[in-house]
Each structure stands twice: as C-alpha cells, then as structure tokens.
Amino acid sequence: MDAPRRLFLQHAALAAGGFVLPGAHARAAATSYPFSLGVASGSPLPDSVVLWTRILNDPLNAAATPAVAFAVRWEVAHDQAFTRIVARGTASALPALAHSVHVDVRGLEPARWYWYRFMLGDAVSPAGRTRTAPKPDSMPGALKLAVASCQHWEFGSYAAHRHIAAAAPDLVAFLGDYIYEWGPYQLTHPASALRTAESFSLAEYRARYAQYKSDADLQGAHLAAPWIVTWDDHEVGNDYAGDRDERLDAGFALRRAAAYQAFYEHMPLRLVLARPGDYAGMRMYQRYDWGRLARFHVLDDRQYRATHACGPAGRGGSSSVTRACAALRDPGRSMLGREQEAWLAEGFQTSKARWNLIAQQTPMAQSSQVPIAKPGDGRFWNDGWDGYPVARQRLFDALGKSGAANALVLAGDVHTFYASDLQKNFNRPASKGNPVIATEFCGTSVTSSSRPQARTLQYLEMNRHTRYGRSDKRGFMLMDVTPEKTTTVFVGLDDVRNAQSGKATLATFEVANGKAGARQV
C-alpha cells in the first residue's frame, strides 16, 4: 500500500473516532490526550520544513492544561513506522504561546517526503506526512497543489478537507479566513448559524482556533501535506483595513495584535517580527520556490492597506462605490503597502520560475456590479482590488516590466469559483494593445455561504474577461503544474452540511506555458 493511501486510511479512522494512537497509554477520558488539535507542517524549503502542534488537553477548556512549560519530543523519519529516523529533538511548549510548538527542522534532503510526530510523556501524536521543496536549480516534472479558503464553522462540515487529504497533494495553499471571529464555541458544526460570542481577546482567539482545529477532517488535510498560509480579514474582524475595523474601535490595534499572535500560535510558520514579542507588526508575506517550476509570492493584503475608499460616514468596513469616488484614483493608496509592493516587484524581477503563482486573498479581476456601457460607468466593491485600482495597475506594471513568466493569480474571499483573464484595461477586449497579462483562478469557500448563482451569471455578462463563475457550490481547487501547462480543477461538494459528502468536478481549465489566459477543457 502506498504512503498516501496509508495516510488516507489513518485519517479516515481519525474522522470515525476509532483510531488508536501508537504508544499512547490507556486513558479514562479523551480530554487527557495532549494532541487534541493534531499536528501540521508547512513553509517548505529545499532543506527545511516547519512542524507544528499545540499541547491542549481539552479544545474547549484551555485551563485544563497546566500553565507550565512542557518538553515536547519530536521525530522526523523516512518511514511511517519511524524505523529510519533522520532528525529528532525536544522543543518547549510555553504557556506564553498557548503551549504551541514550532520546530524548524533543518538539514533535510530536497524534494523528499518525510513522516513526523510529537511525543509528550507516553502520548504520541498522529504521524503527519510532509515534504521539502526541490533543489533551487532543478525543474520538477510536476506539482500537485490544493487551494482552499473561507471555512466558517457555522456554515457546514469540512468535507472539502477530507477530499483534499484523499487527493494526496504535494502542497496545500490556504488563502485566508481559516477561522471566523464569531459563533458559539462548540465542537460540532451546527445546522444553522448563530451570530454570538465574537472573539476580541487573545484567549478568545486561541479558543476559536482550538474549536476549528479540533475538526478531524481539517486535521487530516494537515496530516497529508505541508501548507503555505496567509490570512484575510476574519482571522481578526470582518473587512478590516490596516488599523481600522468596522466599528472604528479605538482599541482595534490591540485586538489585531492578539489575533495575529493567535494566528502564529496555530500555524506552521516561520515567525518574522520587527521586534521580539511585537505581534502587531508580524510579517505575513512570504516567498517559496518549487525549484524552477514555480515561485509562490504569498501576499498580505490586510495589514498594510489604505482604508476603504469613499466609505459611509460613521463606520469602517466595505461598501459599493462608483467611479465618482475620487479616492479610487489616488496614487497614494495601496493594497499591499509600499514596502510589500517593492518586495513583490523584486520577486518578479528575480524569478527564474516557469510559473509565478501569486497566492493572495481576493480577486484581482475587475467585477462591476452593474453594466458598463461608457467610461465612468460601473459600481464596485471597495474591499477587493476594485477598491484599489491604481495599486492593482502598479502590480500589473511591475509584473510586465519584470518579464516574469506565466503569472497565475490565486484568490479566495468571495466564496465563488471564478476563472478570469487579467489585463490592464478591463473595459476593452483583449488585443495586441491590451493583452492578457495573467490568469486568475478564484476558489470557492470550504463552507462559507455566497450569493445565488443567478446573480453570478449576471456578473459574468457584465464582466466578459471573467470566463466562468459558480457561487452555488462549496469546495476547493486542485492544480497540476507542469513545465508545459497548468491544469486547474474546480471541485464542488454535493452537500456542504454532510461530513460524508461526495464531490464532483465542476470545471477544468488549462493554461499553456507562454500563453496567458484560461482555456476550459
């Protein structure tokens, strides 16, 4: 039996609740088990990967875990039975970081699969499967990538993650809204949403992550492959922009810092802080190379962005605006902040990759909510890139100037599958003078609800550069990246409320090397 199949069966047992952890002693109650949130890996480099766990006996009661430091043992092996250990050590799980553990394992071989696990006393964690990136100068034959986002606990099961694990990807990219800030703290997905118990403090965000990460299907997707992650708004609060939230709360900076710290405590990330302990300025944007096949430019479009253009008086957050909004034309406004813009331009300029994947939160393609018959027409959602059109143009200009090959933009946020052609002037057809400069694939949500499909079809009529749209299905994207082409599959669930839901291929697109634009196959 091959390794992905063994891992899938292990995850199936985990989801069924009937698994027995190797080496774990008998215990009277499940709450005595310290690895209740599972394990994860991520941020892969050619010689390194970050391993993660959190010591927590009861996902709904952090106080049940003693407020002392724990010495947590870890192992990395070539085989699932851990007979060929390649690295081992001990890491401290500190109360100050919610007893989270981050191990940056160095000295690994490039382009290699490994198994890893943690141990505390007699308790042994599930064994996760991870891998390193290929050598920088190599050209891998393929990369299988799963892409997901937006998994509100209140709106369905995590069946999408069960299917991601079964697909055995090389890598998972999660594009934000890993948690949502509100909903009852409970360990079952409810039949309907109840807007209560919003998270504001560090303890509350920690509890929210514990709730989400208790899900067996989500744990299984983390067991299957390393992840690269970024955040969006709901890891903090709906539609926040920089240091301003919907409430215009004077204390929002403290809330954001708490949310950022909790995000780090629950993700397999390398921490980049301007100053020790300064989670308020935690850097999220990252770059990962998959040999010369692909470069991932992972963006943060929340922390540094300008406030929303022409928003209503008395509150922050998003709204719809027309081109009469003068702020839309202000060159001083940025979505990424000037430092991140320069970093991204440098990443384009130095890229030798066959494919440049821009992994970020929200669609870049223009999306007018009304027909555009003449210049000046259009109505746009100001929380997305349509609210920052000058910054979007700077990004397109930097991409074009760099000569970086085969740009693919990955997006989430809007709970809809979209396939779009990106061009400098969205209001004119693609032509030699207005070429397609990149292809964008936007994934639907894992669970979070969306607009009716009939309205999405209207959007397609009004925005012809968007070739496909599907908002009535929850799911994820699977991408096969090869030197010759990239194939993207939109995978939809039959029933998001059913944890055992089946899936179906909704649409498949190909982008050929050297030819921007998606072709449905």
TrEMBL record:
Domain of life: Bacteria
Domain Phospholipase D N-terminal: residue ranges: 37-132
PhoD-like phosphatase metallophosphatase domain boundaries: 145-488
Gene3D superfamilies: PhoD-like phosphatase (3.60.21.70), Purple acid phosphatase-like, N-terminal (2.60.40.380)
Classification via SUPFAM superfamilies: Metallo-dependent phosphatases
Protein name: Alkaline phosphatase
